Model the fold of this input.
Amino acid sequence: MWVTAQARVPAFTCPTQNITENADQAFFHMVNGPERPVSNTLWGALFGAPDGQQLAPSNYTSNAGFIGRLPQGAANNPGWEKWEGPFTNRSRTRQPVSDGNSYTMAFGEHVGGLDTALVGQGIIKMRDKLAWIGAGGLPTAWGIANPVYQEAYDTIDPGHRWYRYGSEHPQVCNFSRIDGSVAAVSKGVRVLDWRNFTGMNDRANFDLGQQ
Done:
């Protein structure tokens, strides 16, 4: 299994993505549900260096919705369950999607997380990536990273974080819907529109500012 996890799969990486390859650590499991520690909205496990460097990356991750699956009636669940996504911890293969498959996000692009300690020194170095072998669903609560795109990667917004969707495309980030279609979402999308796109039972209209 460890050897298999190191296999680079071209379909799992974006052709424009170059910087994730050198990330030191890789996430292989994330929990978005009642099983996670009460104090955490997102919990995960990872391989640090040097093992994390060997795990093959993925630039695509599944949609857990706004904050994943929250315990019903819990104090930290102020009605957010309607924005649950299709891929949370222990999610079923066929869940009810009352919004409709063409109005609900399935997967999205993910760059990874910069080494924030080096950003202040003007050094662009990735620290975190997702391992394709089992990264789990990612919540959408923290929005889309909006990097300043430069071909030579000498200017990249420190907004890249392991817990945020993002891409190296100018202005947009690509997402697939459950029905298989693709949405190029503006990185400046309105927060509520983004939230309604990622939730599967909110029954609300939205405008993604698509190109």
Notes: The chain has a mean pLDDT of 81. The longest strand covers residues 25-31.
